[in-house]
Fold each of these.
Amino acid sequence: MTARPKLAVWKFSSCDGCQLSLLDCEDELLAVAGSVEIAYFLEATRNEVAGPYDLSLVEGSVTTPHDVERIQEVRRQSKALVTIGACATAGGIQALRNFADVKEFTSVVYAHPEFISTLATSTPIADHVKVDFELRGCPIDKKQLVEVLSAFLIGRKPVTPAHSVCVECKLKGNVCVMVAHGTLCLGPVTHAGCGALCPSHDRGCYGCFGPMETPNAVALSRQMSKLGMDEGALKRVYSTFNVNAPEFRKEADRHGT
Amino acid sequence: MERRTIKVDYLARVEGEGALDVVIREGEVIEAQLRIFEPPRFFEAFLRGRMFTEAPDITARICGICPVAYQMSAVHAMENALGITVGGQLRALRRLLYCGEWIESHVLHIYMLHAPDFLGYEGAIEMARDHADLVKRGLELKKAGNSLMTLVGGREVHPVNVRVGGFYKAPRKRDVRDAIAYMKRARDLALDTVKWTAGFDFPDRTRDYEFVSLNHPGEYPMNEGRIVSNRGLDIAVNEYDAHFEESHVAHSNALHSHIKERGAYLVGPLARFALNFGKLSPLAREAAHDAGIAPICTNPYQSIVVRAVETLYACDEALRIMENYEEPDRPFVPAEPKAATGYGATEAPRGLIYHRYAIAANGKIEHAQIVPPTSQNQPSIEEDLRLLIKGWLDLPDDELRHRCEQTVRNYDPCISCATHFLDLRIDRG
């Protein structure tokens, strides 16, 4: 019998929600556990099998001096490295520090800032090591996670369309919330994957899957401005879970404080 | 002098990253430190300048396991500031969403994180090799919780449907009705879970805790109530800061909370159960009696049974809400900003969670304070380690380390939450 591929799940700065998405695959979890050897997954097991690993899933962003070194070791131990979620792929909401004074941030939260070891920035994994595939979302979509694992086991590229959330709305037959109701929506510039969840709940997309390929954020901002969004709100709308993604950052920088 | 050093660098089967240092001298645990090195993410700092409407989506990201706890505490705090109340079916829907999170989070902890300690496995995947039917039962029950989260909130992790004043869209009556059959099945599985966990071999250890939880005249607490304890505390949510304080210690990126007058206290299932036993549904009370833990349980290792009873209650309560559900006329109560301070406290699966926000006339957040359950329990966890592992000090290092880990896991600690957590070192002198 051929050895099963070894899977490792790593955590950096994050909320644990993307790792949890693997445990939330209730219908597939035992099948996955039968197809791969879960060699390192601290949230699920004390058992640790030494590397190298065939596939590493990495959650979270790099925010401490120790993590800068740890991600290098993870890369050295991994044949393939896939980042899961907005923190690992873009730096997460904690990347709001990149545009603020982290010392001031520390003093707001902690009585003894000197006890805290943290970097001034929260950066995506790809800023530090080569990443083989990035899975988007805050959180990731568990069907896409199963697709990534299946694709890896078969040895093909995962099918995760890079078009916008708008296409998902059309596929679902949603009425456009922006056109029909004047609801502000980041769908036109946001990467697909969630199944157009927010517009399906009568709210505008808030961009948790980050920018799609070649988004026209300038045109979208112009339209949202016509619908009454002020400069501060335009800045904030791009400054959430994917604030450090270049296309969203650039558009946020064009608008007021 | 006899000296033993035991070290666990990363505690497994907890949410987030932490470590434990235990110092033993001449047969006494003289020091136990829970070191939380989950990196800080500074939520309270970057919430300043955001709109009050953004707090539920942003604070959800503190924790992927209990996002609803953050969303509910945030919306209640904002509504408290703005002077609006959310009643009727909207209030019931919030409770239904919270039932979903209690089921999902409790079942994750019971089956995947905690039960392996009692049955001698490294994790649930390993446990599934010998007990596939048990693990499948857990997964089916967990999925029932997640399906409620999806029904009401839109998705399991970081629900999209919660807003200040209510929801973006109310679920259809037809969809809620269609979910009843699965929830009835889940209630049966939850009852089986209480019986299963009640049969575990528990260490004979009890402690005299100060239990703290919400208390509501009409219901087992989730979203609303006064903050009470078994030592006479009985305060409104907005009096929290007058009675509790947070301190920052060198070994942890999570702040420690104490009751100003008395020190360490315990929040979570044991506390809620002890202080609100009479508010459980008859089915949950009867199951607790049969399990031998009613009406108060002071053995932290039996918290797994209390979690199972709460899971049963959450299924029962969800069914009650679903069977009485009517679509509300509008999905939310409109909220206009004004300069004010608002307070919110709800019961996360792991215990009391407190939010306070000061907002400006234009709706922008000027100040945010968030106290998650694990920060509140951290001093109690350290006290448990000092007091409860005494009889096990002669065990070999591996077994003692495992006992220490189990003692921490009793709390279902959420380290990602607490860092605003584990690696275990035992120093035997």
Amino acid sequence: MTLWWIGDVVLLVVLLPVVVYLLRGVLGAAKSIEPTVRQIADVASAGSKDLDAAALLVTTRDQVTRTVAGVAGYGGSLDVIIDDAS
Amino acid sequence: MPAAGIVLIVAVVLIVLALVYYLVSTIVSLRRITAGLDDVIASVTGIVEKSVPVNEIVVAINEQLDAGVDLLEGLLVKKAGLNDAVGLVDGLYPGAAAAGFRNFPESSKLTAPRIAEVYTKGTLTLARLGREAPIAAASPDGPALRDVVAASHAARRLYPDGRALHAETLPRSPVIGTDAPVQYEQRDDIGAPRKRLPARS
């Protein structure tokens, strides 16, 4: 009978607090991750939205190509109408 | 049942209840984390998809701009000469001569003519375009930037607009002096007293 009581005491005084302590630690860690994940999701969403303008780079590339072609045309004309330095 | 058995059962029930509470709470929290990570994955996937063509496009833009820089540098050096080109660029953008031209590494070692100290940006531009700027005759250092004698003639030849560049035969200027081929008689009334005095007021 004494061993039964000793087992009860061990369960209530040692095992139960240890189990509660460990489970609280796991739950606290899990809850601490939640706001971080939410912030990461918000940042990723904002970054994705910022890249919406990336599609305009195609237009920019075409515009640059046309501009450089125009510059080449002007340069060729200047090359014809202006004498060389030497 | 002995009291010790009842206490044992109560202790086990308490442990199980603690396990259930904390594990269920942990499961709920992990489900929230999973939902948040799903949002993150969706956004990151969007970022990846949107940024796929960026590298190729930026490379193409850089190639075009490189070609433009090569063209303009080459044209400027060809038309102005390396020395004056460095001076012109340094005049427009002070300190740029130190960097030199990209395709002309030796340009960074040149001493830039102090063109900008004498002439304004607009004057330099006009001079480089072959207009009527007087810079050509007075470039501070180095050769003239353009031919002041023939520049106007050259410009008219570029845009004749149907007009003759000049008369085929221009009348000669009259020759004066004692040895002129045509001598004119001196008028007698020059230097003589007036024949009629002005009326008194």
Amino acid sequence: MIADPYRILGVASSATDDEIKKAYRALSKKYHPDANLDHQEQAEEKFKEVQEAYQQIVAMREKGTSSFGFGQQWNADRTKSGYGEDSVDMQAARDYINAGYYQEALNILNRMGAVDQSARWYYYSAVANAGIGNNTTAFDHAQRAVALEPYNLEYQLLLSKLQQGSSWYREKGSSYGRSSLNTNLCLEFCCMNLLCGCCCRSF
Amino acid sequence: MFGYIVVNQQELQISDYKRYRAYYCGLCRTLKERYGIRGQATLSYDMTFLMILLNGLYEPNLREESHICALHPMKLHQMYLNSISEYAADMGILLSYYNLMDDWKDDKNRKSRMLARGIKKYFNAVQEHYPEKAKAIETYVKELASCETKNEENVDLTAGLTGTMLSELFVWKKDIWEPDLRRMGFFMGKFIYLMDAFEDVKDDTMTENYNPWKQFYQKEPTEIFEKRVEDILILMMSDCAQAFEKLPIVQDAEILRNIIYAGVWSKYEAVKMKRHKEEAKK
């Protein structure tokens, strides 16, 4: 761990993602071993430090915003009151999930699947599936968990976490002309733009 | 592969479009230099994307050249070439060979076999150079066939095979960027597979071929079915895009984002529109 990764990249902690990427590029060029044939070893050390600093910043920022996907930590921490209700199998599945062994967790869940398709089962299955990149199943099972127990905050949180990524992507898409591809909707979109033009012009 | 990974040209700045062309022409040139006219025929937008992505991540020197090309002999074309265009060319050869052999096995398409034989010696050379990549594609072809015979209904499972294969091709070097590149390749691969299946679902239903969408296509009204497909495709691309945003890419980032956020949907919209028109005719 680097104590202050921002200092290594020479940027303020308030820098935008783009500024951080640019700072990384400038430094990685400067310290690239191929560009420092006279003192390659020191350069390589510095080069690695810059890479680490960059990755550390990315990881830190991800925690703050939306972070999900396989290869990353997915947790199924239950509230204290819920802990005791889990069956032995369910506890084992939860422990595997929290240790990052998603496939093992799924093996247990699938074995018990036929008898116990409770909201909890779907919840754990959703988390474990997300962990190994089965995003379709993860989404489906999160929805089922919420449908079975609509007032469970944890299930709701998981579902909205999964939905967040899609809405973020849609938003980005509109700035790259995703909507102009859809010629069917195009007309509708243009009309909406006209309607909005009077009240919410952004310039 | 399937040519879904394209730019949304309308929204691309002219300077960026010129760069995009230069990469594309560079890949074409590399294929011709290394593998002749038969190799050149394997040129694809998918591999062009990979080339721009890896160039953005590693920023090696680009060799700028201008050549006349056989298709457009009146004009000099600007091209970008380097070791990454060679890598993308090699991966294109591997993919095309397996693709052609698969068509031969499935449909007894003699033309495919002939074309595959035409690039066989190049394929052998690439396979020797990149045994891991070749193995990944070979495994993929085999496992996909077994999923099809089993009539696998889990969409994640069949699509994940293409994902795993593509994630291997995205890794040019084993270094700290490997996990994010793999994630990108994995979800883009799933997207490609499901997009391709969406395009074929009508034909596959009629010919009783395997298709992971068939179960929904048959049961659900068009609108609901299309909404389902789109939601799942968006899940794939949003995971792919998140992995992309984590990489320190500045060079040509706008071209890559244009492809990731919009371009990849070009075919989807075209397929949807075609289908709606056909239905309206009925």
Amino acid sequence: MKYDNPMEMRKKITVILLLSGLVLALLPLSANRSFMVKPGKLLSDILNPEVSLTADQVAKLIVNEDSTTRFIDLRSPEEFRKLNIPGSVNIPYNDFISSDLYIYLNDKKVKNIFYSNGNFYSNYAMVYARGLGYENSYVMEGGLNEWFNTVMESIFTGERISARENALYETRTKAARLFNQINSMPDSLKATFMASNKFSARKLDGGCE
Amino acid sequence: MNTLKKYGFVSAVLLILLLAVIYRSFSHSGFRYDAPKLASSSFQGSNIITADQIPGYQNALIIELGNADILKGRYLEITLKINPDSILEKKNIGKIEKCKGPVILVSSENSISARIWMLLVQKGLRNVFILSEDKDFEVFRKKFRPDTISMPEHI
């Protein structure tokens, strides 16, 4: 195909290239993989004490079987299999950072509480998720190490116990018992237990017939 | 004039393209693109250092976020105290950017250092580290003895 006027051809090619460049410039290349929240707001959010939950607060959520929370375990699958917070899901940290978080965190009604063995991965993940716009992201302070310090190894050493302390220790005991029961089961039974727990909850919702 | 008419359309398109590129460059609220890549230096604790490693770094700047006892009065000459809530102020960011060596965040709470670290790297600041007393990164320090006798109620 020959063009009578080479200038015309050059003009057309130029226009096509420029328009392609325009389209590329406007495409959201990695819009879902870059922080969207303004830095000042993100800083304010991540320094807000409410984004951190203590081990006692987590224990209460577990004992109450709070369906509006979900625990996300950022450790390796091997560590997760050995023990985990009852009801938690495992997303290893490296996978969490590399993935499209929409598949994990899109339900705005659910509070996602991150934990790991210590403080690093969980806090990175919380900031990362909030930066990408997932405001329903929280962290269990101290991770599993603190969980064991506070809940699993909890011993009352005083002479008298107040009503408040009594409630606290009761919650810790219940949470520790549940943690022990779940994590002491063989892997095959753990999966069945999780499924039966969900099934029985739905049965209760059915009411009398 | 004829030249302008000749290339007017192309110039207009170029100008729109330029404006679009400028918009894209600055539209992400002050954060850089590709959050996963920027966060990847946190894998396996490669962004964490201990106090005894500091002498090995040239031109380091230590940012003390609040009051941190971890340094026990050492390295005062290269330490800058900044409240976590003012870390993003221009003067503070400017000091961090000017630093030719590593920037080391230290706090009495690892969680604060970790959060500020993620925030700063996502803004594109490089060579940022966290000072930790603990050499073992994210290690489970407790012993769990499974109780194989009792069974949960639902089964």
